[in-house]
Write a structure and sequence with these properties.
The complex is a heterodimer of chains A (452) and B (253). Chain A is an alpha/beta fold. Chain A has one domain: Aldolase class I (TIM Barrel, Alpha-Beta Barrel). Chain A contains 16 helices and 16 strands. Chain A has an eight-stranded parallel sheet with strand order 5-15-14-12-11-8-7-6. Chain A has a two-stranded antiparallel ribbon with strand order 1-13. A two-stranded antiparallel ribbon of chain A has the order 2-16. In chain A, helix 10 packs parallel to helix 16, helix 11 packs across helix 15 and helix 12 packs across helix 15. The N and C termini of chain A lie far apart (65 Å). By secondary structure, chain B is mainly beta. Chain B has one domain: 3 Solenoid (Pectate Lyase C-like). Chain B has three helices and twelve strands; from the N terminus they run H-E-E-H-E-E-E-E-E-E-E-E-E-H-E. Chain B has a twelve-stranded mixed sheet with strand order 1-2-3-4-5-6-7-8-9-10-12-11. The chains are: A alpha/beta (452), B mainly beta (253).
């Protein structure tokens, strides 16, 4: 045999070879890998399995029964205010797309700076992560949300007072109920110092907060954070989507000004693959439950006392933004998409991706610090591949496109503000999506689960 | 602090009074937000601004977040019991609680000191980065959880899961420790005089070398227990066997 080429599925079928749907090639590989190493697979990114998503929804544009707005001529506003219920200084954002929390440690300082630059140029907020606030990030971010996490790595009241809002993190969509992990190869001297840990060791982040348990305690914790910041700052509560109806209700009762719900497609820097793929519910399924909780409490888009809903997990396009808003979100947050905008998984680094056993478009080993694009790394040389000014410009461009796309759809539906989109503007392509989103199957008036 | 000046305070109109050289603030008549605002050096309507005189807080009555977020050198005495998060995130201030403290006293303290004359509930000194926390009585479960550089001295005993994931700092216990002491501990050093119900994963007893006896003597003195013999204590710390994930340790996780 002189040459071997990969056989195509057709060739295999012609030879009578039939793949198992249960034991497919990826599954066989996973079993072999587990047997060889004795350790579960840890990776970054979000769920890869197909789940009902925004792709399964369509908008009903205006025609006879509704007037559209003239594109490019009639106003369609995009500004949102977050956290006005209690805070002296709510966040006033120009667009309803924010940047989700991603840690310094998981990302390089330069990548964090770029997120701040891009978000500020587009008039929106960015968010710290599990590892504290860096001066680069604070300096470049007009609106910075400071995450308050179970690990409290780098948690510092001076930074708390420098923040524009505080986000108490209970969990994230990629791993509701799980803590964090930062492997030793990414713990350089600066990351170690910010987290008060020895350099080079595997670092585990706790999954439960150390000084409060349950919603009654959270009420007191939120009150403490308000005391420490003299009531100036909005306080968000972020949950991974699992039981959003109950979690949102409890968060609002505890005093949250903003609730962030992160669906299972939301990314992570490092978690067990089994966790990412099997725990939590899709973003699409989470939004209507969260909205129902707010509506029942009388705080959904209710004016001065409203609690805003921020949704994240798998937002890619302006259509996704518009669909999330139509279902009742006040804003969305992007993480994975923002990294791609910065230059993550760029084909220009294909040879380097191949060299570490990956490929552009597939790279998800954010935990191991060898990111060819120089974004999810602390390696001093790899970091320099990434230009924070250029990255910030690309992110700002992307945020503008998301916003203009959402406006295009909102105008077509006759809305003068993107948040005027409503469930009545949507239909579903599949029964599953119809049931989850609570909108009719296209061409019918049928919403599964809501009777006839 | 320049903007603040000591003024003559009219106790009739502002609801506060000076006692000797100390300023007295009464939580029975002053809202918590106003009290903390004054302690933060803010201007609060109806109150004379606070300079650097000592402060006595009357009638805490178990209120939460009393004296939380202080960020300057102040001497604060709380005359009674407090609820959750008293002196939370303290920086540079010296706070004395003349009673018991609820959950999370001095949580995430950065510097300064907090002294609890009575007992403390769970998570005393949680995640604190610096300063000195003294609990003269007992401390409940999770004392020093995720501590990141604080020194904690407990006059009595501590509950279970104390010093869980403790990263840095020193915890001194004059009495006994509950179950799973120092589980998943990193680089914090624990000194216990009495018995330890059980050690958590990766926590082991260690030799008391000269530098440890010296460090412990300094801590005991700072907390007012200088009569203790440091040699009667046992040191505990990390075996460092869980610092890198290894499949052979799977049963320890």
């Amino acid at each position: 045999m002189t040459q071997q080429t990969d056989p195509t599925p057709d060739h295999l079928a012609q030879r009578g070879l039939r793949p198992s749907a249960t034991f497919d090639a990826a599954t066989i590989h996973d079993i072999q890998r587990a047997a060889a190493t004795g350790v579960y697979d840890i990776r970054g990114g979000g769920a890869k399995r197909p789940v009902p998503h925004f792709d399964d929804l369509l908008f009903l544009g205006a025609s006879m029964s509704r007037y559209p707005l003239e594109g490019y001529r009639e106003r369609c506003d995009t500004d949102v205010t977050l956290g006005g219920r209690n805070a002296t200084y709510p966040l006033r954002l120009a667009i309803p797309v924010t940047i989700a929390g991603m840690s310094f440690g998981a990302l390089s300082g330069r990548a964090k700076e770029a997120l701040g630059r891009g978000a500020s140029e587009a008039g929106t907020s960015t968010t710290t992560g599990d590892g504290g606030m860096t001066p680069e990030e604070r300096g470049e971010s007009k609106h910075l949300v400071y995450q308050y996490l179970p690990s409290r790595y780098g948690m510092n009241p001076d930074d708390l007072r420098k923040a524009d809002a505080i986000e108490i993190v209970l969990g994230q969509g990629a791993k509701p109920g799980g803590g964090g992990m930062l492997l030793g190869q990414k713990i350089n001297e600066r990351v170690a110092r910010m987290r008060t840990l020895p350099q080079g060791i595997d670092q585990r982040s706790a999954c439960r907060h150390p000084d409060w348990t349950g919603p009654d305690d959270l009420t007191i914790k939120i009150a403490e954070l308000r005391e420490i910041t003299d009531g100036e700052k909005p306080i968000y509560v972020k949950v991974g989507a699992s039981r959003p109806y109950y979690d949102v209700k409890l968060a609002v009762h505890a005093g949250a000004d903003v609730v962030v719900v992160d669906g299972m497609q939301g990314g992570t820097a490092a978690t067990q693959d089994v966790f990412i793929e099997n725990v939590g519910i899709p973003t699409l399924a989470a939004i209507p439950q969260a909205v129902r909780a707010l509506q029942e409490l009388g705080v959904h888009r209710s004016g001065a006392d409203a609690v805003q809903l921020v949704v994240s997990g798998g937002i890619r396009t302006g259509a996704d933004v518009a669909k999330a808003l139509a279902l009742g979100a006040d804003a969305v947050a992007i993480g994975t998409a923002a990294l791609i905008a910065l230059g993550d998984n760029d084909p220009r680094w294909q040879a380097d991706y191949e060299a570490i056993g990956s490929s552009a478009g597939y790279y998800d080993d954010y935990q191991d610090g060898r990111d060819p694009a120089g974004i999810s790394t602390q390696d001093p040389e790899l970091q320099l591949r990434f230009d924070p000014v250029e990255g910030g410009r690309r992110l700002a461009n992307y945020l503008r496109v998301l916003t203009m796309e959402a406006q295009t759809i909102a105008r077509a539906c006759g809305k003068s503000h993107v948040t005027h989109l409503e469930p009545e503007d949507l239909v579903a392509l599949t029964i599953e999506a119809a049931a989850m989103a609570g909108v009719p199957l296209a061409g019918t008036s049928w919403i599964p689960g809501q009777g006839f | 602090m320049d903007a603040l000046s000591t003024e003559t305070i009219d106790s009739e109109t502002v609801g506060t009074e000076t006692v000797g050289t100390a300023r007295e603030l009464d939580l029975a008549t002053t809202p918590l937000r106003s009290l903390n605002g004054l302690l933060h050096g803010r201007e609060v309507e109806g109150h004379a601004p606070l300079a650097d005189e000592p402060v006595v807080i009357r009638n805490p009555r178990g209120a939460h977040s009393v004296a939380a977020g202080l960020d300057r050198p102040l001497q604060v005495t709380i005359d009674g019991h407090v609820g959750y998060y008293a002196a939370g995130m303290n920086q540079r201030a010296d706070v004395v609680i003349e009673g018991n403290a609820g959950v999370g006293v001095a949580e995430n303290m950065m510097s300064g000191s907090v002294v609890v004359k009575g007992n403390a509930s769970q998570s005393a000194g949680a995640t604190a980065h610096g300063g000195l926390l003294v609990v003269e009585g007992d401390a409940a479960a999770r004392c020093g959880i995720s501590m990141k550089g604080v020194d904690i001295v407990v006059g009595g005993s501590i509950g279970h899961m104390s010093a869980f994931m403790a990263q840095a700092g020193r915890l001194v216990v004059r009495g006994d420790a509950g179950e799973a002491l120092g589980d998943s501990i990193y680089e914090a050093r624990l000194y216990v005089r009495g018995t330890v119900a059980s050690l958590g994963a990766d926590c082991v007893s260690k030799e008391m070398r000269a530098e440890h006896l010296e460090e412990l003597a300094t801590l005991l003195k700072a907390a007012g227990f200088e009569d203790d013999d440091p040699a009667s204590y046992t040191r505990y710390g990390s075996a460092r066997s869980l610092y890198h994930f290894h499949v052979d340790n799977a049963s320890a996780y």
